[in-house]
Amino acid sequence: MFSRIIRNDIFKSKAITVTTMVFVAASAMLVSLAAILVVNLSGALDTLMTQAKTPHFMQMHSGEIDTARLTAFAEQNSSVDEFQVAEFLNIDGAEIILGDNSLANSVQDNGLSVQSGKFDYLLDLDGNVINVSDGEIYVPVSYLKDNTAKISDKAVISGKEFTVKGFLRDSTMNSSLSASKRFLVSSNDYAEIKSLGNIEYLIEFRLKDMSALGAFETAYASAGLEMNGPTVTYSLFKMMNAISDGMMIGVILLVSLLVVVVAFMCIRFTLLAKIEDDYREIGVMKAIGLRVSDIKKIYLAKYMAIAAAGSILGFVLSFVFKGMLLENIRLYMGESKNSSFAVVLGIIGILLVFLAIMAYVNGVLKRFRKISAAEAIRFGTSQDKNRGAKRFTLSGSRLFNTTNIFLGIKDVLSRKRLYATMLAVLVISAFIMIVPQNLYNTISSKSFISYMGIGNYDLRIQTNNIDNISGKVTEIVETMKSDQAISKVGVLTTKTFKAKTENGSEENIKIELGDHSIFPIVYSKGKAPAANDEIAFSTIYADEMNKKIGDVITLVIEGLEKDLTVSGIYSDITNGGKTAKAVFADNSAGIMWSIVSAELSDKSLVDVKVAEYADKFDFAKTSDIDEFVTQTLGSTISSVEMASYAAVAVALVITVLVTLLFMKMLVAKDRYSIAVLKAFGFTNSDIKAQYVSRTVFVLIVGIVLGTLLANTLGEMLAGLIISSLGASTFNFAVNPLSAYLFSPLMMICAVLIATMIGTSGAGQIKISENIKE
Q1: Are 493 and 473 spatial neighbours (Cβ–Cβ below 8 Å)?
Q2: What's the pLDDT score for residue 768?
């Protein structure tokens, strides 16, 4: 009997059934996708780093190197399992041509390497350790992603020709956040071209126990070994590889949770609408003696069938879309060994959604106990008491002089609890639409450089590992100061100093020296260092060293100990997020690199000046700061952009379906009121106008609240995602046209279309059938 009743009911209300199933499917799909993506990202990353045998500790070093001393240190340290020194031959980007494309404008440090002997292997796209022959070259996978190169292209490196044999995955330098990219050539070709570039050494260690990494770092620093370059550890390699897709997954997780909440609300809509449709029948069933539990079984069985079908459909859809979302993960990291576990976790997520829906439906159906059989049979609909709008009268309203608009808004104010659910859904829809857009606009905007520890300037010239670096920097500065197109010039020089830790040992820290007031950055706490005894730390460095504003740190400067007070803490995602800033003068420590930054009077001259200075100072890397940000965060920006477009589509679908369901519920609930209005002479168009005014009024309130939430709670949630990059403070860079014009307009159009469709049944309500004693 139940199956026949359920089948007939589904066929009778096909639109509501399909709509409910779509919401369940969307919730199940997003939850399943999030689970599948998280497991695949984690598994693919682990597989890549296991196959490549990623170093646990890497010290990049420019300059002279004492390999014998390093080998002795590795042999004497009981934590070390394997040790090697690899060479990275830094080649100027202008000397690298791949097919028809030059890397002259690349902000990356591009260079050649040979295959590692013990670990830190470079892998092909099948995950195998590459064996390269003479005349062949393997190109970083990022240049496949941006279509810079393809297999069989001719590559010219410093005049020597190679054939692009394939593309490589590099577990240490895959990410766009990594400042360097390795090309793989044979030992013979490397030896032939070695004199044409600058050698940088990769001093690498794998430890017997990863838990000893902190102690090993301290031991390495205390031994006074080579440290003229960035220091990177296993956890940082992992974070940099995961961050781009991780941010996209974070957005999908947020949207999926909100869509599940919306699905519950929509199920409540459909249930209430169905109960209103069946109100008299429910009264009859109660009158003839059917128990509430028996009546509930009919509805539970129906929603169990809908939820099951929706969950299965959602699971199937997650497989349709997962290929597209996993494309970037597969390209950069390969297949995950946990893919079967990902499917299992996806199924578990869908089961949880199904069980939560059934529990929620059961809770909503408890209202059957409150239905009076006599009242249901007599009126055929629930009798709500209108409250809350007694002072809102047509005669006293100057703002709304149209009767239909007045009656629509009065109804909303009279039945606030009824409209609260629709309002909540519209708020969530606005939130889903705006937050990912704001996150994308923020990380793609120029202002985001303030979270990279970089000031707001136009031109950047960086000098690394060159002879007479001080003299050449002075030459660049003097040339810039005499250039009338340049309005402001700043110089920051990075050096390594020893710092005393709390346990008495010494640790090497990299400090950027210079005038930090010329191109200031945003400080999350405190201020920039202004006196010689002040220092500022990046968030990650401050946390690692357990330092806060006002704390003192002891540095060894020119052989003497000097106490510096922490004046500020700032966000930074460069150099692994481990940087410091100070203004004291120093002539003892060797320069690691210098950055000359400039602001142009006319921003349109940026491209011209980049080309001019790149040609004039070919020993340095010259870049437009916008291009620097784009290339550094390009993959991350692309992932978040994809997620933001998907979020807009999801929000609009939610808005249309929810409005449609709500209007159908209202029309079913208001049959008596509509009949009375018709009896008083209101036309079908008048009644539609009243319903449109209701939804538009609720929508406007929803958009306002959703926008406020997006810029407060949304900003906080986005900040949690950004903080994984090393940015401790975070403010949205909002595109007003997108957030405050186009998004609301799209929602308004969606609501108006859904309202017109949803209220089409109001014209078919007959006075004689709905006004009865």
Answers
A1: yes
A2: 53
Q: What is the pLDDT of residue 129?
A: 93
Burial status of residue 364 (CB atoms within 10 A of its CB: 0-12, 13-18, 19 or more): middle
d(CA 138, CA 151): 9
User: 563's torsion region: left (phi>0), alpha (psi -120 to 50) or beta?
Assistant: beta
Residue of 188, 191, 143, 181 lying closest to 164 (CA atoms): 143
* Geometric angle at alpha carbon 22, from 21 and 23, rounded to 5°: 90
pLDDT tens-digit series, residues 183-210 = 999 999 999 998 888 888 999 999 999 8
The structure tokens listed for 418 are 């009824």
| Closest to 432 in 3D by CA, of 276, 647, 604 | 647
pLDDT for the residue numbered 388: 47
pLDDT reported for residue 58? 92
How much helix, strand and coil, in percent to the nearest 5, is found in the chain?
55, 20, 25
Domain boundaries, the chain: 1-63+226-383, 64-225, 388-445+632-773, 467-619
Question: For 78-99, what is the mean pLDDT?
Answer: 90
Q: How many angstroms from the chain centroid is the CA of residue 254?
A: 10
Paired residues of 88 in beta bridges: 200
Residues near 283 by beta carbon (within 8 Å), at least 6 away in sequence: 371, 372, 373, 374, 375, 376, 377
- For 149-195, the pLDDT digits (tens) are 899 999 999 889 999 999 999 999 888 777 789 999 999 999 999 88
Please name the helix (run of DSSP H) or strand (run of DSSP E) that holds residue 473, with its range, or none.
Answer: helix 469-481
Burial of 773 (0-12, 13-18, 19+ CB in 10 A): exposed
What residues have CB less than 8 Å from 213, skipping those under 6 apart? 56, 57, 207, 233, 234
Instruction: Look up tokens 């810039």; give the residue.
Output: 480
* Closest C-alpha to 123, from 162, 173, 85: 173
pLDDT band at 382 (very low <50, low <70, confident <90, very high): low
Cα–Cα separations (whole angstroms), residue 247 to 171, 624, 634: 19, 26, 13
